[in-house]
Amino acid sequence: MEIEILVFECGGRHFGVDAQCVRGVLRAVALAPVPQAPDVVMGLVNLRGRILTVLDTQQLLGLGASSLRHSDHLIVVDAGACEMALHVDQAIDLLSIEQDNASEYGHQGGEHLAGSAPLTTPPPLTKPPHSEAPPQLTDTAPRLVRTVAKTHLGVVQVLAPSQWFRGDAMKEILAIATSTTATQLTPALNL
């Protein structure tokens, strides 16, 4: 059995997302800021009348914050509970992966894959006020990555947006993404 993935570059690494949840890919545009939103929320965009929350995918994956450049892409995904856009450096290719070349994230022959541990949970969304210590992650944090696949580009970690909003770890982002007042916060940035 094959799965199709959209491969993208983020923070100098290759990632993918199941093509079935991709609704579109567009060039990055100016975003409307969301006051007091978690750091991982870059802003909002009005896509043909639909307000989408744009996430900093690089920061979500624990690779540091990124800035929006005109050459970047926004990948619109169906995250189960809502649609949102993932800010990435570049969408690269649509690939079909044989099930034999993919394994459940984090395990292969009973061992963790090299470099996989940091991506099993999202980084903290915000630091507690007046605290130098980073917040602690909870065991209920969603799995960001579903599958690891071998491709001609190397190892690609395939994200699972439909799994992100199970539990409480990202409910603040979900509240922003599904807010009916988001339309009032967003100027006419129609694409």
UniProtKB/TrEMBL annotation:
- Which domain of life does the UniProt lineage start with? Bacteria
Region Disordered: which residues?
105-137
Q: Name one GO biological process term.
A: signal transduction
Q: Which residues form the CheW-like domain?
A: 2-149
Give GO cellular component annotations, separated by semicolons.
Answer: cytosol
Q: Return the protein name.
A: Chemotaxis protein CheW
This protein's species is Novipirellula galeiformis
